[in-house]
Amino acid sequence: MRTPLRRSAAASLVLVAALAAGCSSGGGSGRTEAAPTASAPSLSAAERVAGEQDGTTPTGGPTASAPARPTASGAPDGPVHGPSAPAGPVRPDAALTPATGTFTPQEKKYLSGRVPTSADPAAVLDIGRETCQRLSRTARHDKDAAAAAVVAGDVRDAPDAVAHLCPDQRPVLDAARGGYSDGTHASPAPGRYRSVSSGPDCTWQITDARGTQLAAGPAPGATAPHTLTVPAGAAGLQSTGCYAWLRA
Question: What is the pLDDT of residue 110?
Fold first, then answer.
């Protein structure tokens, strides 16, 4: 598991404007819900289902903080973030039907294995659609920022959403593949990497199997974007305040 993300100010400026634009707002009419507290806004239907998938959202309210996500694999051809399996039982594929209309074959493939038994499949589908909207809107502004958001885990289940719902966003996944988020990573893949949306406190170090430092940065006076090179045989990569690294 990677350490909780501490997003830099630079990352926030880029991503809050673009990523948040794709989010849907609160619930629909005809439902009675508990009133939100003054300090905690109500959740959209998709956000409630997302919390139920993770097993972290209390009934009637949002989570206190986002759950930690697995780190990127770092493998050049490996997935960035895999699907989020619900914490509890899921609906069988035969029961994946909307209240009205039908799902397309690709929508059914996205929903397979990810709809909690108590959830509306359409609300789960909205999560995937929101992911596609976020990727599309961010990529139009800055493709690197979209790829960095995928690497950092700020976009839910991007590989599955792109595969089944928005294949036009495949270039974003390709750019994110093999990247690293802030945190500690074992056996980083050799190669050259560049920082995306790094803050003024961005630091990193690369160590061998005995914990001996092989490289560290940035150099005095260096300005973002930064680059680092992971040598063959490196056993660890630690990054703080850099947000995400893409292959250079």
Answer: 96
